[in-house]
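Just wondering, does anyone understand these tokens?
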Amino acid sequence: PRAGCVGDMIAKLKARWQKFDSRERGAVLILTAAMLIVLMGAAAMGTDLGWLYLNGRRTQQAADAAALAGVVYLPNDEPTAISTAMDMARANEYVDGSMGGDSTVIAHKLVDNDRRLQVTVTRAVDTYFLKVFGIDNVALSRSAVAEYVLPLPLGSPEPQFGNDPECAPNVATGVGCTNIWANIHGKYTNRVMGDAFSPWCKGSNGTSCAHNEWHRDRGYLFGVELDAATASLGVDLLDPAFVQGGNDYLWAGDNPINGNVGPSVEFTLWSEDPTPLDLSDGNVILCQVVYAPEPVGTPFTWRDFCDIAGADAGVYPLQVRVADENFGLNRYSIRTSAAGAANSRVYGLGDMSIYANVQNGGSDFYLAEVEQVHKGKQLIIELFDPGEANGNNFIHIRDPFGNSPECHVEVPNDSIDEVLSNCIIDATRPARNYNGDWIYVSIDLPGSYTCNGANCWWKVFYDYANEANDTTTWTARIEGNPVRLVE
């Protein structure tokens, strides 16, 4: 009997389920179909959103690459900057619709900063599932702004770098005198003589010296700059050849009796270059002369080095390097001239080795041109082997208005790491002897930093108790990559 009851219960449950299934099956099918539509729509939306995100990133990268490629031709050559940006976009298949859908690229120099290039890439991207909703494509537009920070001009705001015959030799007074000479040392000269990069030697001079790890064969670079196209550009040199006595120097033991007569120096003027620190990007030699050492008493006059007809606006790198293995200290000056309405100037690029004539009571020298566009950035100054004079000596770093701002000073060899409220560096000897040392100075430029038009030159002021003839290496730069995205 119990088994029969269980059987009856199972039969009743089965009958009820069949009755329920027949009533509800249609409703479940409707709900399932509706959910499938929602799920498929979400999947379609997710697929197309992912596709649009991917193409948005690609479009942004194309704008970034185009802006970075073109900006190096600013500020002087906007047409080439724009065409280069377009070529880069084309190389990434973002011109002529080759990625599918129409593409446009617009590039232009910013009005408020002529070293910034803005590139906007717009592209219609085809969709997949969104076509069901009548959306065949979506327009994506991405922009990038790149900035090219040119090397800071160093040492001179004028068409001349270094003193002229009316102020020479070894005299730092007189109208038009800059108190400095350009300088380069021979290969086997000890770097402690003040030239950090040209000599092969450190610790001593001669062929058996220890190797100077900072040595470079390219020597030093100057920028010969034209602000407009001109019918002719001229470059003259004063005392380009080594001549014992006067400005040039061989010390005891390094005289001609030992077979050394001083270094031969090569001067090379290269074609206009928007990236003047790189001489490997298609530059052409316009003029090149190797000046061998010359006899004592050689006339101390300007020499015609190079004349160019039909020069375009821009910066022409002038390279100065030692061409043999002799040693000695060679000082020289450079001047430029331009015909017509164009103005020219010459300055150090990246770094410079100089010979400074310091008078009792102080002498000041042009350090670097820091324009207003650099506000909010950091100015880095490096001085090698400065302050070689006994007595109470101070090195002032001064802004364009004659003020010494707060700065951070480091001298690793002397364990100096300090913040100065006024950037006046104590160089009193023997307590603070920087012979063969680097002094590293960093200055935060405020967001309110301004300078008066062309008068944006910072200076170094030597406040010395005694006269000094000091060979040093200086460099100044704005911290950061010179080519960068800013937006």
